[in-house]
Structure formats: C-alpha cells, structure tokens
Amino acid sequence: MAAPRFVERLTEQIAYEFAAQQQYIANAVYFDSQTLPRLAAFFYAQAVEERNHAMMMVRYLLDADAPVSIPGVAAPATEFADIVAPVALALEQERRVSEQIAALVGVARDEVDYLSEQFVQWFLKEQVEEVSTMSSLLAVVERSTDAPMFVEDYVAREHPESGPTDPTAPPAAGGAL
Ligand SMILES: [Fe+2]
Ligand SMILES: [Fe+2]
User: Fold this and answer.
1) CA 167 to centroid of ligand 2, rounded, Å
2) Residues 69, 131 contacting (CB under 8 angstroms)
3) Ligand lying nearest the CA atom of residue 53
4) How many CB atoms lie within 10 A of CB 5?
5) How far apart are the first and last CA of the chain?
6) Which ligand sits closest to the CA of 92?
7) Cα–Cα–Cα angle for 64, 65, 69, nearest 5°?
8) 58/19 Cα distance (integer angstroms)
9) pLDDT-derived band of residue 44, with 50, 70 and 90 as boundaries?
10) Which of 3, 42, 63, 64 is most buried by a 10 A CB count?
11) What percent of the chain has pLDDT over 90?
C-alpha cells in the first residue's frame, strides 16, 4: 500500500500532467494557426505524452489499491506574442515539473515507501530528456524569428513523428496512446 502522503502528492501531480497536456494542445493549435505544421505536430505529440504520464500515475494508484480521483485543471495560456513564447512557456513548465517529480521522490523516501520511490524514478529520467528537448528547441526558435521555416526544418529532422517507444515506461491506465 502506497503511503497516504505520497498518494496525495501524486494525485496533485496527475493534475499537473493533465494541465501540461492542455498547454501543449494550446501550443500546437497556435502553431497550426500560424501554418507551422512541424511545430504543431511536435506539440500535439507532446500533449499525448503528458496525457500518458497522467495515465501511468492513475495506473499506479489503481495497482497500489489507493484511492484515485481525476482532477479538473486550470485553463492553459492560448495567446502568444510570437513563435518563441509558447516554447519558452514549455521549457518553464518542464523545469517546474522536474522540481515536482524530485519532490515526489523526496516524499516517497521520507515515508520509506520504496515501491512508490521506484515508480517515480522513471519520471526523473523522462524530465532530464524533456527539459533538454525544450531547451534545444527554444535555442533554435530564438534564432528563427525572421525565418520560421528554419525551426520547421529542425523539428522535421530532429523530432520525426514516430520516435522509438520507451520499453521501460510504466504501464498507463487503458494503455498508452
Ligand atoms: Fe509529464
Ligand atoms: Fe513533459
């Protein structure tokens, strides 16, 4: 049985992951409306990843026989000054999530809840990757404000739509999309 304090904090994290999904959909729709289809596809795919993160956490609570509640989430930002703004927001979000995941590991450790600590380890590795991806994308988009096709080419080259799936990822409730 997972520690109640961990369950409480993980439930909050489910809301943050769903909120990240909504923000990435909003980013994708913005890029779609600017006719930047590669950036749009990238953020549509990121949104699905965030949804999967939330559903992995739901699956863990179900498996641990813990109470599961599905939260409502705050509305995402939908208006952006330029093509840099949504990516800057994404990097800020990923950095915040990294801190939240690290705090979750801390709670599991404080509660001597080894199973929960092991579950949340995967997300630490995932955050290293996501912060790095967003920070590279921000660097490229900042160089592309006068030539957005430059960042479109970069995304097409570096982030092909069907990347490899991670076999070490925790199972998601209902299956990962
Ligand atoms: Fe996430
Ligand atoms: Fe993320």
Assistant:
1) 18
2) no
3) 1
4) 14
5) 28
6) 2
7) 100
8) 15
9) very high
10) 42
11) 94
The CA 161 to ligand 2 mean position distance, Å, reads 16
| pLDDT recorded at residue 164 | 66
Phi-psi map region of 35: left, alpha, beta (phi>0 left; psi -120 to 50 alpha): left
What is the reported pLDDT for 122?
Answer: 98
pTM given for the model: 0.96
Query: Is the dihedral angle over the CA atoms 123, 126, 132, 137 positive or is it negative?
Result: negative
* DSSP for 46-104, written as a single string: HHHHHHHHHHHHHHHHHHTT----PPP-PPPP---SSSSHHHHHHHHHHHHHHHHHHHH
Q: How far is the CA of 96 from the centre of ligand 2 (A)?
A: 10
